[in-house]
Amino acid sequence: MFDLRKFLAEGQNSMLSKVVQRSDTAVEYSNELNDLLATPACIHMAIEAAIETVDKYLPDGFISVGSSIRFVHTAPTSLGMTVTIRTSIIAIGDHDVLLDIKAWDEQGEIGHGQHRRAIVNKEQLIQKAEERTHFLTNRKS
């Protein structure tokens, strides 16, 4: 492969802000929480920010894919409030990066965690996925 440290650096970060819309709320999980930001929406924003932190700096043909995430949602955020997520690279391995996640709204922190992303060759990833799909197709026949 290649040395990730030639393309990425600890401390490298991105921020993403979004006004909480109805589609971001927990209505899918509970009608009683239909005015509150859902944890999966926070995690989705964290993943988007992580991709922005990493992928645009990788060499052509390489992307990052999520391999694990740990997120603690610490406070509720209401419909119409603005959520900001910041992801920062805190460790660079041979084939992956670990990012710190911080989330807040106008009132303060709403969550935190860590997200690990593996760096892979996009073409090889797609080829492997196609092989796995082919195996399933053959098994059904």
Structure description:
This protein is α+β, with helices and mostly antiparallel strands. It has one domain: Hotdog Thioesterase (Thiol Ester Dehydrase, Chain A), CATH 3.10.129. 25% of the residues lie in helices and 38% in strands. The protein is built from two helices and five strands, in the order βαββββα. A five-stranded antiparallel beta sheet has the order 1-3-4-5-2. A hairpin with a 2-residue loop joins β4 (96-105) and β5 (108-121). It starts with 12 loop residues before the first strand and ends with a helix.
What pattern of helices and strands is seen along the backbone? EHEEEEH
Q: Summarize the main sheet.
A: 5 strands, antiparallel
- The chain-level mean pLDDT equals 94
Structural class: alpha+beta
Helices and strands in order:
Blueprint: E1 13-19, H1 39-54, E2 62-73, E3 82-92, E4 96-105, E5 108-121, H2 122-140
Antiparallel strand pairs: 1-3, 2-5, 3-4, 4-5
Q: What's the short version?
A:
This protein is α+β, with helices and mostly antiparallel strands and 141 residues long. It contains two helices and five strands; from the N terminus they run E-H-E-E-E-E-H. It has a single domain (4-140), classed as Hotdog Thioesterase (Thiol Ester Dehydrase, Chain A, Roll), CATH 3.10.129.10.
